[in-house]
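Many introductory courses stop at the sequence. We go one step further.
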Amino acid sequence: MRIVWAMTSRERLLRAIRGEPIDRVPIYTQIPFAVTNHDFRPGSFHGYDDYDDWREQDTLYREIVKRMQEECDNLFVWRPPCMLASPFFVPLDQTRLLPPQRRDGRIVMTQSISVGHRELRRVEAVQPGTGHTWVLQHWCKTPDDARHLLQLPWHGHPAEPGDFHEQQRRLGDRGLMWVTIPSPILVVCRLFDPTEFLIYVRTEQSLIHQLLETAAERIHANLRTLLEAGVGPVIRFGGAEHATPPLMSPDDFDALVVRYDQPLVRLAKQHDCLVAVHCHGRLRHALHRFVEMGVDQTDPVEQLPDGDITLREARQIAGNQITLTGNVQMREMASCRPAQIRRRVEQILADAGPDRLIVTTTGTPIESITPQLAENYHAMISATLASGRN
C-alpha cells in the first residue's frame, strides 16, 4: 500500500510500532536530547542526569540534535523517579548521602543505610566531562544483606506522573514518548555485583525469587498508578538482557524474566498502551518469548556476530507482530567510513524492512562526538531517508 501524505514524527513512529502503513521507515539516532517549547537541545535521557553539561559544550552533538529535530523520528525516553531501581528495596527516608570525594579525576559519591547492626553502602563514581559512571560498590555484598533489606518497609519515590504531560506537550508531533520501566530482574540484579548475582541465581534460588516477587509487586503498583494517570503510549521495559545467553540459559530466561514481566506487559495492554522491550545480546530465544508475551517493539536486535541471529531470522520470528528497532552497532559507528554505514542501512532495510522497522544504533555516545562519528550519524540518517521510502 502506497502512502502519499507526509507524516509527522509522532504519527510515523506510532504507526510503525502498530504495524500500520507508513510513508517511510523511521530513523532514530538514540542520541539523548532535551525538549523545550521551541526546539531540541543536547541533554541526557530523562531521569539519567549528567554530572555536568558536557553535551551542550559539544558542537558536533548540537548539530546532530538540530538535524534530529528537523528530519528524524524521535523517541523521547521518560523515566519517572518512582521507577529508579534502588528505592524499591532501600527506603529513601533512611538513606544518607555522604560528602562527595575526588579520586583520580573522578567524583566518588556514597550512599549509606543502617540495617539492624550492619551498614550497607552503594558507591559510584562519575567522570566529569563525559557520561561515564561506574558502580564501585553495590548495596548487597552477601545474600544476608539482601535478606535484611527484605525486612524493611517500602518507602520509595511517590508514583506520580510528575512532568510527563508537560514533556509530552513540549514534544508534540516531533516525537513519541518512550516510558522507561525496569523489569524486576534489573532491580534485583543491581542490588549485587553482576557476577555475584549470576552465582546467587544458582546458590540462592529461594532468595532470588523472593526478591523478584517483591520487586514485581512494587513495580506493578507504581506502573498501575502511572497508567491510570495517562502515562504512555509506549511502555518500554528494560532488564531482560541480564538473563540472555551466555549469562543464563533459555530456561532461566523463562523463569526470571517471562514469569515476572508477563503480568506487567498485561497491565500495560489493559490500559491500551504499546509495549517495547530493550534487550541486548543473544535474542533468538527471547524473541520467541516476546512474540508470545504480546510485545510490540524490541531494540536493539543485535545480529551476528554480536548476537546469535541474523536480521532476516529475526524478521521471520517476529513476523508482523513486533517492530524491530536497530541495528547499526556503536563499534561500527565509531570505526567505519560513511560509505560502510550507508551500506549497513541498506542491508538492514533489505533484511528487516520496510514494514515494522525503525533504523537506529545499538547505543548512545557517552563522551564527546568525534568528527568520524558525526559523519557516520549523518550518513545513517541520510541513507534511511533516501532508501526507506514506501
